[in-house]
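REQUEST ID: PR-0412
SUBMITTED BY: lab tech R.K.
PRIORITY: routine
TASK: structure prediction, single protein chain
INPUT:
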Amino acid sequence: MQAKQCARVFLWCAIAALLFAVGFVWYALHHPECGTPFGLSLAGTWTLYGLYLAVTAALFVLWAVFHKKSKAS
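STATUS: complete
OUTPUT:
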């Protein structure tokens, strides 16, 4: 794939992940009775959320790298 196409894919994946996270937080704030997902402990939940945040940030970083590469060529 060309760098421009890769950049576009990473951008849309990052936007989708960000929208999913916002929707999840909105749902969690309105339904506190649901508890933590998968029966995880609090530390496990924070680890899972941190990993999701890191992957979302990595998608934005990859978009920036490929976007810059497509502009250079």
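NOTES: Helices lie at 3-30, 42-72.
REVIEWED BY: pending
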